[in-house]
Amino acid sequence: MPNALPHLHRIGVLPADIDFMGHVNNARYLNWVQEAVLAHWNKLAPPETAAKYLWVALKHEITYRKPAFLEDDVIATVVLEKVQGARSFYDTVIKRGEEVLAEVKSSWCCIDAKTLRPARIAAEIQEYFFPKD
């Protein structure tokens, strides 16, 4: 979908993120993606809408490019690529400066917070993420 609004999400690398090899454990990147995607939703969706829905990850495809280390200044750039019914497809790029550390394609299911059943994202809500010119 054109004109998707990206979300920049600053990531703090913590000592607990570091593995036996001295860099951020690969599994931690998935936590970062989850934090970044949810922050994107909560930033752009109206508060009353954000409170009505929860998100469940369905799939992550991650390509690791370079390791991250303690003290690194890391930013995740999140872009919602498209919405199909209750599913949303995200592209997240995790960088240290201009260096790409990881690229993640993920799909998520929107669920109603009360019923815990899949919920479609209404067109008027999608417009917050894909504004028209």
Please tag this protein with its features.
about 130 residues, alpha+beta, Thiol Ester Dehydrase, Chain A, elongated, 4-hydroxybenzoyl-CoA_TE, HotDog_dom_sf, Acyl-CoA thioesterase
What does this protein look like?
This protein is of the alpha+beta class and 133 residues long. The protein has one domain (7-129): Roll (Thiol Ester Dehydrase, Chain A). 24% of the residues lie in helices and 41% in strands. The protein contains three helices and five strands. Strands 1-3-4-5-2 form a five-stranded antiparallel sheet. Strand 4 and strand 5 form a beta hairpin. The longest helix is centred in the first third of the chain and has 19 residues, at 26-44. It is elongated and about 45 Å long. The mean pLDDT is 94. GO terms for molecular function: fatty acyl-CoA hydrolase activity.
